[in-house]
């Protein structure tokens, strides 16, 4: 029995490969994601292991706030602790550590690197203790004064800087010029994990990237014969409150874990798309095996007649699927390693730089790839295998009908029921006003997707008759034949189209969702921001503009109102999050935040403003005391003094700048909002503001329109990435169409030969196959776009409370998607059409 | 009634009368399959003329080259050497596209099986060559053909809903619909029972007698051959005999002497 399986496989190597291809791409995607993840985490692990190698004990603030994005925030430790630790018997060497934001400017005054989307740009103090200094000087010497800096070799090479040159560095203290005294590498690398590095003498570092009088951490080297634990115990004995002590080992592990946490979101994101690709691939496999089984019905019937059991026939198909799956897994793994580099390149093209060295392929990746390829293929082949087992022996003796047009009612009913459940959940989420509307909508969307896929065969006939009929009328006999062929097996047509439906549905949904998001942002900002100018710091949460900039702008005669906007980590009512701080009295007039209760006039150091949703959710009202914890000042009590309705600018809650100054060591404006004095010229005001921010090359002055555009524009980057990742699903779907057509052509050899004999030209033959492909592609696309449109609308409606005020379906983009899908259909048909046209007519006629 | 000419005396050049009468003819037609040691001479220098408005049968043992000859005559296959003429046209000089056009405009086909496109209805199958050529069918003629082959009730049916005999009749109707100059039939009754076969053969004879078409039919069956006006016998790729006014008995006798039982 299984001998026939292998014979089958060997006889159709090419078909086997194309079948495997559908899964291969999904597997490659997944393997690639895992390789990228492992490469990045290995890079960081090595980095931290290297950097912390010499540390036997680490002292740091015990207050921490772990916000979703960016490193966790901690309170600093007092400088004086260094001397006290140095006194201890067990400590051989001690040194305070400073780190923070520092960004180089190249010789054209352009910022080097972009901490918002790429690797961080870091500044440290130069460690004098060799065990604690992970950097190696390749040229020059350490920094010794306020005006000196040591730079990484990557920056030196790219920017053409040498020892003795002057380099400009942006820090919290603004822009400064420094003399390069040395050039370093880290573990032999020019720029570990892509980060740029500026090293200053310790006091300078405290001023520029830390806080005078404090360190973020203190690193300690143990004396001879002193264990890490003993050292920690000794330090703990003298440590003041608000400080914690870790062994070197714990410290390394903690640093590594923090990075893993940050990466896990990114990995999940990529794996979701790999999952989509595999899902689409499984449709193709299912379809291919169905066709193969249908084509072999006669042969299978003969085997059954000759005594093969149902199970043997079932088993032989499953075995074939397993082999296809293993092949797909192996090829997928190999491709995945290459794909990892490609994905990295593509993401770099979109402005997202991933760090990492040589690709890391772990055993886990290999096993996952192989297992996924196999499991997906076998699962997808289960139904076809059962169908094969069910072939009665009699079939071998009868001539079977080529047509397989009957659709089981069961499936139609199942499809209808599933779709109804999906739509019900969707509707309940939208109109039933449950607390978690978006979950109902999301789940409903997914279920509806499956329901529509089940119903697709029922929809295929009317669609092909309608659209295909129209094309046939316009394009003549080849198109008419294409229509008939697409109709011949609606199940096959729709399974092929379903794969494309999923890809296009997601593309359509994302397009609509993104357009609606942008339109909503446009609208809210237009509605909310009544000022005239915005200065964006361009540093994305790493530093920003020092408060003097806002003061200088406020002093301009052309400017009336000014408010900076600061962000800081905070624990609000026990939840690790962040707060926004504004000049409340000015901001209330710069923006219409819709104050519904309370007043901005007497908003003080302990006043708290909250959005009405927060008020409702937490049950807070005017006068409610709220505890907010800060890393620098600990728990503080605020009072709800303002409740507002528009959260476009302020977010869920805000405090006053005065409160921010009282509770944070570092003061930076991420944004500055300003309005003009009456009668002042915007152009002139802008010129003056631009002059003030000139020393901060990352900063950008925007008028209202530019500000809106820049805010909405952030979505484009993400959109680009999502499109890129969905392309895989679409490519798989196109391969699926091509595969199905190729198999159908094989099946129709006779008929095609006959058509050629009675006068069909090669060109007509090609065009017929092409039209069939286009009809399938259009069917999948229109189903997909419809589903995508409904979901887009549903999700946007469900999120209406979260600020999605506008639903927008970008017609031109959706039309482009439909046209591209038709084009994909043409591309998918190229190979099968060529094969059909080249078909040896005589052989075709004479077969049998 | 017989207008048969002794082909052995006819060469393609110099006989104007024969030329005008010839619907199709070959000149030293040679077809070799394979190469070197495995080479098979399926046609070994065939000179044959098929007269206009005549029903000719080709007979011979299995493997004697009957199908090959027919395929070459119909432009479905090309010769290794020699010439095939269809009326005034030498097929070897035509491009692939011209050949296709010639097939759908000047030739009709009836094969042994798989004659019809399964996804098309009987009527659509009948008009297929016309549709492919974007020609409007002549309605009166079409109705007449359909009536003749007796398919009026079954036009909207698909091939799988038709019996073998009905399918072959649809194929004959298709061959007639475009009023081709020559109809080629390769064992058109090979898969049919006697009475269905007789109906199809009657139709082919009708095509010659009533409508003046030329029919060339490959067959194994002496009874089928007796419907024709002339039988050409092939053996080993050569013409070994040519019989006018065949009857089943004469054909059987002849077949015995050629070596087939
Ligand atoms: N495509 C082909 N390749 C090789 N040999 C062929 C091919 N077609 C036919 N032949 C050989 O040519 C000879 C004549 O075949 P054919 O014309 O089919 O005979 P008939 O129709 O009289 O049975 C046979 O020996 C056959 O094996
Ligand atoms: Mg034959």
List the helices and strands and how they pair.
The complex is a heterodimer of chains A (848) and B (261).
Chain A: H1 2-11, H2 13-51, E1 57-61, E2 64-65, E3 73-74, E4 77-78, H3 80-87, E5 91-97, E6 99-101, E7 103-105, E8 121-125, E9 135-140, E10 148-152, H4 153-159, E11 166-171, E12 174-186, E13 196-200, H5 202-209, E14 214-215, E15 217-222, H6 228-238, E16 243-247, H7 248-295, H8 297-305, H9 310-349, H10 363-389, H11 409-431, H12 437-475, H13 477-488, H14 490-528, E17 533-536, H15 547-555, E18 559-572, E19 575-582, H16 584-590, E20 595-598, E21 607-611, H17 612-618, E22 625-630, E23 634-644, E24 653-656, H18 657-663, E25 671-676, H19 682-693, E26 700-703, H20 704-747, H21 749-757, H22 762-798, H23 811-838, H24 841-846
Parallel strand pairs in A: 8-13, 10-12, 19-24, 21-23
Antiparallel strand pairs in A: 1-15, 1-16, 2-3, 4-14, 5-15, 6-8, 7-11, 9-12, 10-13, 11-12, 17-25, 17-26, 18-19, 18-22, 18-25, 20-23, 21-24, 22-23
Helix pairs in contact in A: 1-9, 2-7, 2-9, 2-10, 2-20, 7-10, 7-14, 7-20, 9-10, 11-12, 11-22, 12-13, 12-14, 12-22, 13-22, 14-20, 14-22, 14-23, 20-22, 20-23, 22-23
Chain B: H1 16-21, E1 22-33, E2 40-51, E3 55-59, H2 66-73, E4 81-86, E5 89-90, H3 96-106, E6 107-110, H4 122-132, H5 139-149, H6 164-177, E7 182-186, H7 194-209, E8 214-218, H8 222-225, E9 230-235, E10 238-244, H9 248-258
Parallel strand pairs in B: 3-8, 3-9, 6-7, 7-8
Antiparallel strand pairs in B: 1-2, 1-4, 4-5, 9-10
Helix pairs in contact in B: 4-6, 5-6, 6-7
Bound molecules: adenosine-5'-diphosphate and magnesium ion.
What does the model show?
The complex is a heterodimer of chains A (848) and B (261). With 848 residues, chain A is α+β, with helices and mostly antiparallel strands. Chain A folds into four domains: 1-50 and 265-398, no CATH class; 51-261, no CATH class; 456-527 and 711-848, no CATH class; 538-698, no CATH class. Chain A is built from 24 helices and 26 strands. In chain A, a hairpin with a 2-residue loop joins strand 11 and strand 12. The model of chain A is unreliable at 399-405 (pLDDT under 50). Chain B is α/β, with parallel strands linked by helices and 261 residues long. Chain B is built from nine helices and ten strands. Chain B has helices spanning 16-21, 66-73, 96-106, 122-132, 139-149, 164-177, 194-209, 222-225, 248-258, and strands at residues 22-33, 40-51, 55-59, 81-86, 89-90, 107-110, 182-186, 214-218, 230-235, 238-244. In chain B, helix 5 packs antiparallel against helix 6 (164-177). Classes of the chains: A alpha+beta (848), B alpha/beta (261). Chains A and B meet through helix 13, helix 21, helix 22 and helix 24 of A and helix 3 and helix 4 of B. The structure holds adenosine-5'-diphosphate and magnesium ion (MG). Adenosine-5'-diphosphate binds at residues 33-34, 40, 42, 60, 62-68 of chain B.
